[in-house]
Amino acid sequence: WSVDETDHTDMIYSIPSDLTIIDTDRNGMVDRAYFGDLGGQVWRVDFDNVAATGDVTLTKFADVHNGDHQPLFYPPSISMNRERGKRFIAVSFGSGDRTQPMLGSSDNAFYMLRDTDVETGEPDASFTTITAGNIYDATSNDVGSDNDAISATAKSDLAAARGWAVFLNAGEKSLSQVVIFEGKYLAT
């Protein structure tokens, strides 16, 4: 199987990373893949039957490009989570141009985005692509504030968002795959 701009008109950037593949229903067959591109887009591919080449659905899961060039060179890390009794797939990744590691003017971030369509098959018809405006800015760590009012507001804003981002200092970038291990987000 393959996907290209004939499957989605926004698929116009190179894809340098590996795919992250998962078996969401644990039947021993791959049914979903996630990957990023050089335009800051994250893609989701759903397989009805991985052995049948025609049963593939491509969805633009997220577009983190917010006016700044945020290329995604590494595959996202995937973890199943539960929050307030509902399951979601955490799609975690970092942005940064590894071809220009010393570029001091780049703006990048680490992300964790929630995919609430955890069942096999294509996303619900109401699904919309996650954009920068749907992502909580966790850079200042207001959730961990000692001020109860600030912390409560931040927790509410985070719960309403479709994920979070921690923006890096100018010139900093993610230069390896993010790893999620025992509830911790590990990145360089």
Question: How does this model look, in words?
Answer:
By secondary structure, this protein is mainly beta. It is built from one helix and twelve strands, in the order E-E-E-E-E-E-E-E-E-H-E-E-E. The protein has one helix at about 150-160; strands spanning about 20, 30-35, 40-45, 55-65, 75-85, 85-95, 110-115, 130, 135, 165, 180, 185. The strands form three sheets. It has a five-stranded mixed beta sheet, with no helix packed on it. Strands 5-6-7-10-9 form a five-stranded mixed beta sheet. Strand 9, helix 1 (about 150-160) and strand 10 (about 165) form a beta-alpha-beta unit. It is globular and about 55 Å long. The model has no long low-confidence stretch (mean pLDDT about 90).
Describe the secondary-structure layout.
Blueprint: E1 20-22, E2 32-36, E3 41-47, E4 56-63, E5 77-83, E6 86-94, E7 109-115, E8 130-131, E9 136-137, H1 148-160, E10 163-167, E11 179-181, E12 184-186
Parallel strand pairs: 4-8, 9-10
Antiparallel strand pairs: 1-2, 2-3, 3-4, 5-6, 6-7, 7-10, 11-12
Quick summary:
With 188 residues, the protein is mainly β.
Shape: globular
Major sheet: arrangement of strands: 1-2-3-4-8
- Which class of secondary structure composition applies to the elements? mainly beta
Run of helices and strands: EEEEEEEEEHEEE
The stretches of 5 or more residues where confidence is low (pLDDT under 50) are none
Helical amount: under 10%
Q: Please indicate the percent range of residues in DSSP E strands (runs of 2 or more).
A: 25-35%
Biggest sheet, in brief?
5 strands, mixed
How many H/I helices?
1
Distance between the termini: 33 Å
